[in-house]
């Protein structure tokens, strides 16, 4: 259907002052009821702002407490830097929420409270005027109703007396009825005058009421418009404040994320190892040490303290080696007791560099008496601690029970708990072992009573 021109026109704006009339003044309750609802809604908004401010303050204080208690001194490296950023940003976020609580109280809570107070004051002033007018109007309405009832009653009484005045009545009775009728008509006229006066006064009060109610409706509409406008602005500001705090939180989180991108896990691991390393050697395993008795077993019996001394120091001229020699041994015939000792013809030569030790002779050039004719005299080549076969034969493994510090170049310094492979077990109590020093293998002697042979 084609639209009429009137349908295209904008509907006229309706006003409170023309929309709340009718019988029994019902519009007053509707308009004032709306203003009361507006006040309640404003109070609800005020409560929301107060509660949110309290929440933000509590949250800011608790977050600041958490940030203060967040200790990062146990961390190290790039992760420690990131944790420091996290703690700092938590403090920044806490301050942002505390500032938000202050803003909500100063920029929203107080303005909303002042707005409610102003609206209530304006509404109460007009309500008092309307209440006074309404009471006067209602009282006059009641008075008019009574005047009307009295007027109607007198008129009805006069009509009744008029009906009773019949021609058949006695002159005396007729005079009495006539007198009563005249008196009733006079009363009816008086009631009629009061009734008319009451109507006129009620009309004046009604006009005053209508004028005041129309003005109150105009004020009520303005109050409602201001309420809606201010509530919109209050809520707009409220959301902007909350949004600003959220943006601040997001910026704090972004700075934390940026710091986390700088964390280098491998670098932190290496830093921890470099600063806290305790060594690369595994602890020695626990060794079973049986208790033995010398009367039953000639093996070594462990003691709680190291031996008071090592075996006597080996001397090339005091002992004969019965097993694998430490160096190339050269036997010197006992009859060569005069002069210097020379190399026997059957002594093996080492690249023509064999060196012999000179026997110590007496001042008169004779061999000392402690060397009997029946003894064979030996000399040795210098002991090379690095002269080790590629695959040496290990005859036993021993565990060091006590520390021992080398007293000569051919001896080994050994430490408690160390495991040593044994190459030679000499009968004089000195054993030859193999160790690694500064990445290089070397051999040497150590006292056998400082170790325990492993099974």
Tell me what the structure shows:
With 455 residues, the protein is α+β, with helices and mostly antiparallel strands. It has five helices and seven strands, in the order H-H-H-H-H-E-E-E-E-E-E-E. The strands form two sheets. A five-stranded antiparallel β-sheet has the order 6-5-4-3-7, with no helix packed on it. A hairpin with a 2-residue loop joins strand 5 (430-437) and strand 6 (440-447). Helix 2 packs antiparallel against helix 3 (77-164), helix 2 (26-69) runs parallel beside helix 4 (171-261) and helix 3 (77-164) packs antiparallel against helix 4. The model is unreliable at 293-303, 313-367 and 370-379 (pLDDT under 50).
Summarize it:
The protein is an alpha+beta fold. 53% of the residues lie in helices and 9% in strands.
Number of helices: 5
Beta-strand content bin: 5-15%
Rg, Cα atoms, Å? 63 Å
Strand order of the largest sheet: 6-5-4-3-7
Order of helices and strands: HHHHHEEEEEEE
Name the assembly state: single chain
